[in-house]
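Human: If only I could read backbone structure tokens as easily as an amino acid sequence. Take your time, and here it is.
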Amino acid sequence: MSVAKYQSWEIAHIGLCVNDVSEASDYYATIVGLISSSVDGFSNGTQGLSLYRPNPNFAKERGLIHNPLMTKFAAIVVDDLDAVQKNLERRDIAYSDIDDAVPSLSRSLFCYDPSMNLVAFTTRTGATPANADWNLHHVNLQAHDVRETIAFFVDVAGMTEGKWIAPPEMGDFSIDPNELAVLTLGGENRGLHIIRPDAEFGYRNGFAHNPSIGGHPAFRVSDIHAVMSRLDDAGMVYSDAGTYAMTGYHQVYVFDPAYNLVEINQRIV
């Protein structure tokens, strides 16, 4: 029996592998402007970002199938973790039950979605504060089969697919739900973005970066022009996409020092 479709959820955390934790931490603090809560990473009170050097021994030492310290991952907080666990077992999906991967996370079930993105389902710690200086607006996941990947999240965690909200004069990309879909969190395209990779996406839109390949987290900030000014001062190449994909949002793409692609955006309406 699947989880009820009305189960609520939130993006709780994003984990990124980096080669130099100090350098990456300085970038997210001084360039992106995230608030640091501890040596473990950044937090707005209910959502967080962790940065870690790859650790190939983490899974082996614990007898686990999945290793969250070898790749990026997104953690999704749900109301009923036991129900999600039963749904994973019903679908015969292998998972790793971990409670010490990230200090700021409680017990988490790590698994691969059908497109081999590492995700974690975890227990709820609270709603995102509306007045936070930043939040995780969305996480973009690359999918070889968008519909299969959407169905996984709907069936396993009771998440709900929404309709993509594009500006009247959007960029050159497809919003066909077979190629781009959103598991929505209260509108404004918040949530999980599931996208089929498009090798010409960046070229057609005049970007130095291709947001359709490899996945990325998106951080909403209060002053995107201040972030762009700091990127200019640091001599970092970024793609200023303007308002091209999401109604009411100015979007910028940039690599962090470890070449993780990140999106920085601001609500402008």
The first helix runs from residue 21 to 32. The mean pLDDT is 92. The two ends are 42 Å apart (CA to CA). The first strand starts at residue 9 and ends at 17.
